[in-house]
Design brief:
With 303 residues, the protein is α/β, with parallel strands linked by helices. The protein has 2 domains: 3-31; 36-299, Neutral Protease, domain 2. The chain contains 15 helices and 5 strands. It has helices spanning 3-29, 50-71, 87-90, 116-119, 130-139, 150-153, 156-169, 176-194, 199-211, 222-227, 229-235, 237-258, 260-272, 279-290, 292-299; strands at residues 34-36, 42-45, 78-82, 100-102, 107-111. The chain has a 5-stranded mixed β-sheet, with helices on one face. The chain starts with a helix and ends with a helix.
Length: 303
């Protein structure tokens, strides 16, 4: 009897059993959700959201294909699209509607429906400049004629998948706020290059929030968000949303100034720079290796 052959066969059986057990355990985690197959991302969603799940999954495939051509890299990710009942079963994040990426479990989690968090950003449009108010009424209207921020928040799945690039590629983005800006640059670049008809949905909402001023927010500096990132995100979600809108606006300016090449340079700079930099060194890196418009987010934030 060939004992070596038996040993190899036994090891193969063990590996196959472990693989099947892992798959079964993985599926059991989301046994209360519906599985959507046939896409690059693993997709699980709350019952009744078939159309939304397919729309998001198709867009995610397009994002992965686009950036694989741009930077020759493609992360893996699992997407959860959850209703209010399923949300607390699969995430500890307290605010329903806040899209987020769980790097420990490699999960991208988004809401399946309109919610109070999104609605909280709808301002009294009659108090806004007429041009901006008109844009809002045209861009963010649902089938009932009511204002809804869903067209904007639907695009944020692209922002969240940006975090998978950061974590899985091991990029050193130097600052927490830069990690968020990076994802917004990734989002805006993809939309501008592939779905330009969605630019209004992406840009009008941040304009609206920024136009409302910052007086109501407790934290507004980059130092604040750097030192209190988790606290602001979980305890002051609207304040955190204001930061995101500032970064969204900046991402638009950055794309307009440098196009796709700015994202590529950003990717390369963070891939190569491994050591922690001082503020002055970081600003110089962004200015010299990427684009001045990126450095200006840091240098001119409080202006």
């Amino acid at each position: 009897m060939n004992t070596n052959c038996f040993g190899h066969r036994y090891k193969s059986i063990l590996l196959l059993s472990f693989f099947l057990f892992s798959l079964t355990g993985y599926a059991q985690k989301y046994s209360d959700l519906v599985t959507l197959n046939g896409y690059k991302t693993k997709v699980y969603f709350s019952t009744g959201n078939d159309v939304r799940a397919k729309t998001v999954a198709e867009r995610m495939d397009n994002v992965l294909d686009f950036y694989n051509k741009v930077i020759t890299y493609e992360p893996e990710v699992t997407l959860l699209i959850l209703n209010p009942m399923d949300w607390p079963k699969h995430t500890t994040f307290p605010v329903y509607g806040m899209p987020h990426y769980d790097d420990k479990r490699n999960l991208l989690i988004i809401a399946s429906e309109d919610n109070d968090f999104w609605k909280g950003f709808i301002p009294p449009v009659d108090l806004l400049p007429k041009e901006l108010a008109d844009k809002i009424k045209i861009t963010y209207v649902d089938e009932n004629g009511s204002l809804s921020m869903q067209p904007f928040f639907d695009l944020l799945a692209i922002h969240e998948i940006g975090h998978t690039y950061l974590f899985q590629a091991g990029l050193n983005v130097q600052r927490k706020w830069m990690g968020e800006l990076f994802c917004n640059i990734l989002l805006h670049t993809y939309i501008a290059e592939n779905e330009p008809e969605q630019l209004s949905a992406l840009t009008v909402f941040p304009q609206m929030v920024i136009a409302g001023g910052k007086e109501e927010y407790k934290y507004t500096s980059l130092t604040d968000i750097e030192e209190r990132y988790e606290e602001i995100g979980q305890n002051y979600p609207k304040n955190y949303g204001w930061y995101q809108c500032r970064w969204h606006s900046a991402a638009g300016n950055i794309y307009d100034a440098g196009g796709v090449s700015t994202f590529v340079k950003l990717w390369n700079a963070f891939s190569e720079q491994k050591e922690k930099l001082s503020d002055a060194e970081f600003a110089a890196l962004l200015s010299e290796k990427v684009h001045q418009s990126v450095a200006d987010v840091m240098l001119k934030w409080d202006e």
